[in-house]
Amino acid sequence: MFLILAIVLFAAWIGGFLVFKTAGILIHLLLILAVLSLIMNFVAGKRSV
Is the dihedral of CA 10, 1, 43, 37 positive or negative? Predict the structure, then answer.
């Protein structure tokens, strides 16, 4: 789940960087959220149900 969220946020960051170069703060917030989501994915790991 977190990995998918990280990929989506990273794709939104790349898309935003290419399309809206003036929205720098929002783009970098998306990057930070993607990195945090990826870190949470590695920390949480796979849990068996």
Answer: positive
